[in-house]
Amino acid sequence: MGRSTGFDRSDVLERAMDLFWRNGFSETSLRQLEEATGLNPGSIYYHFHNKSQMFQAVLIHYIENRLLSRLAFYMNRHAPLESLRLFFTTSYRQEDVKNYRCGCLLVLALTESHRNTLAPILKEALGRVEQGFSMALEAGGCDPSTSRMLLDSYIALQLSGHLLSSRKNLDQYVKEIFARLATT
């Protein structure tokens, strides 16, 4: 019989995600992860092997449970282009400051020094986001091949939000993105 985990993996990943999101990978220590997750060092190593693999698990958890689910949420409840606009703006418009973490964790992972080890995860996730954009564009009567431009714009928006964090400037940028989209 297998060893019982004795913890809620999703809860541990959420707690670690908060820490990685606020501090970044390199500025997050194992001690901080222990405190945030309630796991002892042995449990972290047993279940995740090391900090890098824990970050990978957190990133996959984020992609599945936050990023792609947010895109699906808007696509199931709004017109296609409005769903994309909401996906863009809700990435930086958070009423609950406690839950705001300076942009998209996927995009922040692109800036991490160890991104090469994350490359397969990042490539697959970016492809899935682009595919979602393509489907929404096609459903909205736009050229689905502009999904790459839209993905690039999303990444630029996230990086701008991380550096500037002015909602007014970010709103203007989103408005320009969707104005360009209307002309393609």
TrEMBL record:
InterPro entries: DNA-bd_HTH_TetR-type_CS (IPR023772), Homeodomain-like_sf (IPR009057), HTH_TetR (IPR001647). Residues 29-48 bind DNA. PROSITE patterns: HTH_TETR_1 (PS01081), HTH_TETR_2 (PS50977). Residues 6-66 form the HTH tetR-type domain. SUPFAM superfamilies: Homeodomain-like. Pfam families: TetR_N. Keywords: DNA-binding, Transcription, Transcription regulation. This is TetR/AcrR family transcriptional regulator. It comes from Parendozoicomonas callyspongiae.
